[in-house]
């Protein structure tokens, strides 16, 4: 075996014991540091497994969604094609309607022109009819005069009188027919005026219809163009979605493989961590045995101090029993009653008030024993810490984070270090642990404890924590 250059082979046994004690303490420190690192790796591995599980689930979900999108895009492409066909037919129909509208507009204008041509003819008929009426009136007057002259002529004018009567009757019929023609021409003129007004309105309506048809045709043409572009984009997106679907099919197997690798790594880290915990226990045993053999370390003065203080607490507890300030049953009470509204949760027992009275005079002066001392407090076998140092026994607030740092009394610390300190029955137990300082920072600490016995019965232990 290679010899320590700082220690001669013929060195006395005491020196070897000191060297063994120091080596055991250093080993504990290194092992705890590595164990803390593995704890972090284990936590990171579990977080990665959770993230991978979520990613796998989301990847499966994305594959399903993408498949649904592909189907929807195919359906959309079909709908777009049908819409384009319908729009194309609508554009053609609109254009044909526009042509028909233009032709109707032309016919309406021709009818307006022709109805305008009829007006002069009707006016001429009216004027001619007025002349006929005038002539008929004159003929009637002549017939009347002829009849008067025939009467004067007597028997000789009787034939002329018959002719005069016939002329008079013909004149009357001609006048009546002329009046009928005048009325009909007036009605026809009025009808033509109304028809021309209707044709004018129809012409305006057809003109507006033509303009609106042209505007609708332009809009339909624009819609057709846009839908054509949308259809092209939909086809392109459909192709891209198909390619994405093909790529996404490879994701779940890859994620499952990564999950298996991370699971194996996490399992290995957890196993290594369990082995390191056993190694920590062995290093603590080495420290105890080396000191018991007479070895001296930098912790020797702390060991002596914590054992002395544990003896004082034993004496104080037994004195309380003798003075009947509490009973053994009360001192060993394990019915921890929660303090209502406390966060983190605090508890009280039947001995809490007693320890609040007797422990501070023993625990508080130790804070000045060495500048590295962080706290000194007694815990029972279940890790319950009834009375802490005053700086850690502040009145709780509504802030749980603040309370966790400043209200550490009356709490149960069931972690590995706390439970081992409370259950240890060896003369002392030196543990090394990493203290969480927040923000991802950790500090290596030493937790030195000595058992507390009351009338031969193990109550718990006194913890003395200090920095390296």
Task: Report the sheet-strand fraction.
Answer: 5-15%
Find the CATH superfamily of the largest domain.
Methyl-accepting chemotaxis protein
The CATH class label of the largest domain is Mainly Alpha
> Which fold name fills CATH's third level, the topology of the largest domain?
Helix Hairpins
Provide the structure class. alpha+beta
Question: Termini, distance in Å?
Answer: 30 Å
Strand order of the largest sheet: 3-8-7-6
Give the total of beta strands: 8
Count of all domains? 2
Low-confidence stretches: 1-11
Helix content percent band: 55-70%
**Number of helices, counting only DSSP H or I runs of 4 residues or more:** 9
Coarse shape: rod-shaped
- Return the average pLDDT rounded to an integer: 80
**Sheet with most strands:** 4 strands, antiparallel
Q: Write the CATH architecture name of the largest domain.
A: Orthogonal Bundle
> What is the CA-based Rg, rounded?
60 Å
Query: From N to C, what is the helix and strand string?
Result: HHHHHEEHHEEHEHEEE
């Amino acid at each position: 075996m290679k010899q320590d250059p700082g220690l001669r082979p013929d060195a006395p046994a005491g020196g070897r014991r000191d060297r063994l004690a120091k080596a055991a303490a250093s080993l504990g420190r290194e092992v705890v540091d590595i164990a803390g690192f593995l704890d972090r790796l284990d936590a990171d591995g579990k977080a990665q497994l959770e993230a991978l599980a979520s990613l796998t689930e989301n990847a499966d979900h994305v594959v399903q969604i993408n498949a649904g999108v592909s189907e929807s895009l195919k359906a959309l492409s079909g709908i777009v094609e049908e819409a384009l066909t319908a729009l194309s037919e609508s554009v053609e129909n609109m254009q044909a309607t526009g042509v028909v509208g233009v032709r109707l507009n032309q016919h309406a204008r021709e009818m307006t022109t022709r109805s305008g041509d009829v007006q002069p003819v009707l006016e001429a008929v009216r004027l001619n009819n007025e002349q006929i009426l005038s002539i008929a009136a004159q003929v009637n007057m002549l017939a009347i005069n002829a009849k008067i002259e025939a009467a004067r002529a007597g028997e000789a004018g009787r034939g002329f009188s018959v002719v005069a009567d016939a002329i008079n009757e013909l004149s009357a019929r001609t006048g009546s027919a002329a009046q009928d023609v005048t009325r009909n021409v007036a009605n026809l003129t009025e009808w033509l005026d109304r028809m021309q007004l209707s044709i004018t309105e129809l012409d305006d309506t057809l003109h507006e219809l033509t303009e609106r048809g042209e505007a609708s045709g332009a809009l339909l043409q624009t819609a057709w163009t846009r839908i054509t572009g949308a259809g092209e984009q939909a086809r392109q997106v459909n192709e891209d979605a198909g390619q994405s679907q093909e790529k996404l099919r490879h994701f779940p197997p890859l994620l499952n493989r990564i999950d298996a690798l991370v699971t194996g790594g996490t399992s290995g880290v957890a196993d290594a961590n369990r082995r390191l915990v056993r190694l920590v226990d062995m290093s603590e045993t080495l420290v105890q045995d080396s000191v018991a053999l007479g070895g001296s370390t930098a912790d020797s003065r702390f060991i002596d101090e914590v054992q002395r203080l544990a003896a004082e607490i034993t004496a104080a507890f037994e004195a309380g029993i003798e003075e009947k300030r509490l009973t053994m049953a009360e001192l060993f009470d394990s019915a921890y009653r929660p303090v209502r509204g406390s966060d983190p949760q605090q508890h009280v027992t039947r001995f809490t008030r007693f320890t609040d009275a007797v422990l501070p005079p023993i625990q508080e002066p130790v804070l000045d024993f060495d500048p590295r001392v962080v706290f000194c407090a007694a815990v029972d076998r279940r890790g319950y810490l009834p009375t802490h140092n005053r700086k850690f026994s502040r009145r709780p607030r509504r802030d749980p984070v603040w309370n966790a740092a400043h209200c550490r009394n009356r709490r149960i610390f069931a972690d590995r270090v706390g439970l081992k300190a409370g259950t240890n029955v060896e003369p002392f137990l030196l543990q090394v642990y990493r203290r969480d300082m927040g923000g991802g920072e950790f500090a290596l600490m030493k937790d030195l404890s000595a058992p507390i016995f009351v009338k031969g019965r193990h109550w718990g232990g006194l913890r003395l924590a200090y920095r390296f």
